[in-house]
Design goal:
The protein is of the alpha/beta class and 445 residues long. It contains 15 helices and 16 strands. Bound molecules: pyridoxal-5'-phosphate. In the C-terminal section; belongs to the class-I pyridoxal-phosphate-dependent aminotransferase family.
Length: 445
């Protein structure tokens, strides 16, 4: 250790840090009392023969979750990211979160057991934030995805139907399919879910659950109009069905005030509400609230406990510390202002450089914008060409529970600074020209 310090002119701390990293990579091993030694080279692994699994797993086609997993894909250097679904590093409040985590792990008992419902302080915070619910209605889950999965699984049985907005979050479609549910799509327009079609859909499908994103829906950016909200709640009461409200973008409002959640005015427990911190704070702050009343709460609680017992205590404590600190309000103001600048940059760049893309709604929050492509363009092929041209965008197809009513793109403004957005749109325009040229080329014989 001493000679390494001298050789490289670095401090003992630096050498220790390097050795820790080499040890983590398995290249050296530390033996207390003896020293640090170069590790024995690992034997090359023999090629495993797993072909027997083909017979054991059977012939079901596996669920394609590639569009959900692409939310986490790291783009190659130089690619402008108009895809994804979380804030970029420039907007993540890393310093404040690290400070909260440091305080959290210093708490006595921080590594101890936690009730399945979660830490009381965090449950109370979510209850205050949501309004109209008590802390006893709240359980803490590992992000919104887990909450969605638990809610959908607990409130349905395989073979039943679930009503999903069309288009909707691709991860929710995958959950529904993975539990063997039939999907009954209800179309969206620029005022949200077409509630006028709901009664017929419920009668035809017998569904007992409707999933909705009333605020800044992913992918359309639409906010459900007040009369549709009221109509949805009337229908839920009339047909005795649950409404799962995925309020994933509640803290990403650009234009305030945002409408109150459905859960905040639901005395009789029709609404099962989901509110996640991952979108507004950091993808790695995997903490969300799943809220329900009555027997539904007990069902969800059992499913949650069977899934993973509880969310790690230090993470819950860090989340609670962060949202109860002044840093939270400062952070939300910053995010809201910056998302507004980015949205405007995207809308104006599209109007200037890609007027053939029809943008139905200028989102009042969230981080996605939905654009209709000219009819002859293949959205998946275009997304591939765009990536080759250095801009990542999301093809719309996977966001429809059934056949899409035309080709669309989802363009995300949450992951790229406003100064890069015009160049991203420029690259997309070039890719669209090429996609059109392909579409018009006569088929090769
Ligand atoms: C609409 C919607 N709901 C839920 C989720 C899951 O988010 P998380 O598990 O990170 O909270 C996502 C992620 O993209 C989403 O877009």
């Amino acid at each position: 250790m001493r000679s390494l310090q001298q050789q490289h002119g670095v401090s003992p701390l630096t050498v220790q840090a390097v050795v820790r990293e080499l040890s983590a990579e398995g290249l050296v091993t530390a033996r207390p009392g003896s020293g640090t030694f170069v590790a024995r080279a690992a034997q090359p692994a023999e090629l495993a023969d797993t072909s027997w699994q083909q017979a054991a797993l059977g012939g079901h086609s596996p669920l394609d979750v590639s569009s959900t997993l692409s939310l986490f894909a790291k783009p190659a250097a130089g690619v402008i990211r108009l895809a994804g679904g979380y804030l970029d590093d420039a907007l993540v409040p890393s310093a404040a979160l690290s400070a909260s985590m440091t305080r959290a792990v210093r708490r006595p008992g921080s590594w101890g057991r936690v009730p399945a419902e979660g830490r009381e302080s965090l449950r109370q915070w979510f209850a205050r934030e949501i309004g109209g619910v008590d802390a006893s209605n709240v359980m803490i889950t590992s992000g919104g995805q887990a909450a969605l999965s638990i809610a959908i699984r607990s409130l349905t049985r395989p073979g039943e139907s679930i009503v999903l907005e069309s288009p909707t979050y691709t991860g929710a479609i995958s959950i529904a399919r993975s539990y063997g549910l039939d999907v009954a799509p209800v179309p969206m327009d620029d005022r949200g879910m077409r509630t006028d079609l709901l009664p017929a859909i419920l009668e035809r499908s017998n569904a007992r659950v409707i999933l909705t994103q009333p605020l800044f829906a992913n992918p359309t950016g639409v906010t459900m109009a007040a009369e549709r909200r009221a109509e949805l709640m009337r229908i839920a009461e009339h047909y005795s069905v649950f409404v799962i409200e995925d309020d994933y973008a509640h803290d990403l409002a650009i234009e305030r005030p945002a409408p109150a959640s459905l859960a905040s005015a639901d005395p009789n427990g029709h609404v099962v509400h989901i509110r996640s911190l991952t979108k507004s704070a950091a993808a790695g702050l995997r903490v969300a609230a799943l809220v329900a009343k009555g027997a539904a709460y007990s069902r969800l609680r059992s499913a949650k406990a069977l899934e993973d017992f509880y969310v790690a205590g230090p993470l819950q404590d860090a989340a609670s510390d962060f949202v109860n600190s002044p840093a939270w309000a400062t952070h939300k103001r910053k995010v809201s202002a910056e998302l507004g600048v980015r949205r405007d940059a995207l809308v104006s760049s599209l109007a200037a450089k890609l007027p053939e893309l029809a943008v139905a709604v200028r989102p009042r929050g969230g981080m996605h914008l939905w654009a209709r492509l000219p009819d002859q363009v293949d959205d998946v092929a275009l997304a591939g060409l765009a990536l080759a041209d250095g801009v990542a965008v999301t093809a719309g197809r996977a966001w429809f529970p059934a056949e899409p009513d035309g080709p669309h793109l989802r363009l995300t403004f949450g992951e790229t600074s406003a100064d890069l957005i015009p160049e991203g749109v420029e690259r997309l325009a070039r890719a669209l020209d090429r996609a059109r040229a392909f579409a018009q080329a006569p088929p090769r014989v």
